[in-house]
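Propose amino acids for all 420 sites.
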C-alpha cells in the first residue's frame, strides 16, 4: 500500500510538471500571436489599492485658489497676416513643370496683375534608356594601325548594366526589400527581358566591388573595446536544390561607443563564427546566455558580461506560472532600468553615472540576489519560475558587470534594435 501511494505521488508530481510546462508554452504562444510585443512591466493594481491611492491624492490636493490675472497681448494685423493652409511645403529642390491655364474669356487688351500658383506632387514611371559610347576609329598613315578612344571604367566588365541601374537594383533589394523576381516584372513592363540569374549575377558583382569597404568597416567595428553580439536566423535559398531554403545565421556585432553595426553571415550557429571573427578582439563582450559565448569567459583580455533584458524576459514569461515571485523580481529590475533612464534623460556624466550605479543599483542587485537564493529551493526546477531563477543565478556576476563601468549598457537591446 505504501509503495502504491509513493507511485501515485511521483506520478502526480510528474503530471503536474507536464501541466505547468504545457500551460506555459500555450501562454507564450498566445502572447506571441495575440499579445503586445513590449517588455515594459506594469505591476497589477487591485481596485481597493487604486481607490485608496485616488483618495489619498484627492485628500492631499489643496483647495484651489482663485486669482484674477490680466495681461496685454499684441494682435497682428489681419491685413498682413498670411493664413496658413496646413498643406505640406514641397521641396524647392524638386524640378517644376509649369502648365499655364489661360481664362476661357478673351483677354485681349487686358493687363496682367498677377497669377495664382497651385502645386501638386507627381511622379513618372522609371524610365530606362540606353547610353551609347561612340568611339570613332582613325587609320594611321602607311597602314601603321588604328587609333580609337578607350572605354571608361565600368562596374561590371563587359556587362550591359550601367552604374545607375546597378544602384537601383541594390537599393530595391536591400533597402526597399524587393525580391529579384519582382524587379524582373518591373523590367518586363518596359519590354526589357532579363532573367533572374542575370540580375542575381549583377548584384553579386556589385557586392564584390563593395568588399574593400566592408573590410574597412569590419576593422573599425572590431577595433572597439566594447561589443554587443547577437545571432539571428534567416532563410537562405539553396543553390543545390532549386526552390528550397536552408537556415543560415547573421551574427550581428554592435559597437555602442561608435554606433557601428557589423553583419557577419555564417551557415551555422556554432562557436566557429564568433571565435573566428573575434580572434584578436580585446575588451568587453556583452551577449545573452547562449552557451556558445561561454568560450570567451576564459579568454585573456576579454571581460564577458550578460544582458539583463534576457534575464528579465524569463521572469516575464513566468508570470502565468508564479505571479507573486515573478512580479517581485520584475519590480526590482524596474528599479534598475529607472536608474538607467535617469542617466540617459538627465545627461549624467560618466563619473556621476558610475557613482549612481554603485550607490543605487548595486544595493538593489544584492537584495535581489539574496531573494533569488532564498526562493530557489522553494520552486520546481523545471517550472518557468524555476528556470528563470536558475538562469539569473548562474549568470549573476556577469549580469552585474555593467555597474563597474559607466560605458557599459545594462542590456544588449541596442544590437537587437540594429537587427530589427
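Proposal:
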Amino acid at each position: 500500500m505504501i509503495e502504491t501511494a509513493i507511485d501515485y505521488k511521483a506520478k502526480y508530481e510528474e503530471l503536474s510538471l507536464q501541466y505547468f510546462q504545457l500551460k506555459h508554452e500555450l501562454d507564450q504562444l498566445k502572447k506571441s500571436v495575440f499579445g503586445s510585443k513590449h517588455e515594459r512591466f506594469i505591476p497589477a493594481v487591485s481596485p481597493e489599492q487604486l481607490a485608496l491611492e485616488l483618495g489619498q491624492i484627492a485628500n492631499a490636493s489643496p483647495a484651489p485658489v482663485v486669482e484674477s490675472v490680466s495681461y496685454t497681448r499684441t494682435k497682428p494685423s489681419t491685413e498682413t497676416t498670411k493664413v496658413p493652409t496646413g498643406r505640406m511645403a514641397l521641396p524647392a529642390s524638386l524640378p517644376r513643370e509649369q502648365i499655364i491655364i489661360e481664362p476661357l474669356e478673351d483677354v485681349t487688351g487686358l493687363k496682367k496683375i498677377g497669377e495664382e500658383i497651385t502645386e501638386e506632387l507627381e511622379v513618372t514611371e522609371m524610365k530606362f534608356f540606353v547610353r551609347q559610347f561612340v568611339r570613332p576609329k582613325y587609320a594611321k598613315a602607311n597602314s601603321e594601325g588604328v587609333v580609337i578612344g578607350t572605354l571608361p571604367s565600368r562596374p561590371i566588365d563587359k556587362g550591359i548594366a550601367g552604374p545607375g541601374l546597378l544602384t537601383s537594383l541594390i537599393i530595391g533589394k536591400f533597402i526597399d526589400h524587393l525580391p529579384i523576381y519582382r524587379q524582373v516584372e518591373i523590367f518586363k513592363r518596359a519590354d526589357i527581358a532579363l532573367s533572374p540569374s542575370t540580375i542575381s549575377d549583377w548584384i553579386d558583382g556589385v557586392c564584390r566591388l563593395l568588399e574593400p569597404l566592408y573590410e574597412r568597416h569590419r576593422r573599425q567595428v572590431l577595433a572597439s573595446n566594447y561589443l554587443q553580439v547577437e545571432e539571428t536566423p534567416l532563410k537562405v535559398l539553396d543553390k543545390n536544390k532549386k526552390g528550397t531554403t536552408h537556415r543560415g545565421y547573421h551574427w550581428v556585432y554592435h559597437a555602442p561607443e561608435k554606433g557601428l553595426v557589423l553583419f557577419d553571415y555564417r551557415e551555422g550557429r556554432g562557436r566557429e563564427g564568433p571565435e573566428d571573427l573575434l580572434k584578436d578582439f580585446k575588451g568587453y563582450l556583452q551577449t545573452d546566455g547562449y552557451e556558445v559565448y561561454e568560450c570567451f569567459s576564459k579568454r585573456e583580455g576579454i571581460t564577458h558580461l550578460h544582458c539583463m533584458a534576457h534575464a528579465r524576459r524569463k521572469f516575464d514569461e513566468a508570470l502565468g506560472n508564479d505571479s507573486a515571485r515573478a512580479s517581485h523580481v520584475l519590480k526590482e529590475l524596474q528599479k534598475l532600468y529607472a536608474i538607467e533612464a535617469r542617466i540617459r534623460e538627465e545627461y549624467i556624466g560618466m563619473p556621476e553615472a558610475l557613482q549612481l550605479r554603485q550607490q543605487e543599483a548595486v544595493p538593489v542587485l544584492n537584495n535581489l540576489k539574496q531573494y533569488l537564493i532564498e526562493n530557489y529551493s522553494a520552486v520546481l526546477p523545471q517550472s518557468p519560475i524555476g528556470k528563470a531563477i536558475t538562469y539569473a543565478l548562474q549568470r549573476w556576476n556577469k549580469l552585474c558587470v555593467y555597474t563597474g563601468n559607466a560605458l557599459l549598457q545594462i542590456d544588449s537591446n541596442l544590437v537587437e534594435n540594429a537587427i530589427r
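The beta strands are 137-139, 146-148, 226-237, 245-255, 260-266, 283-287, 302-306. The two ends are 60 Å apart (CA to CA).
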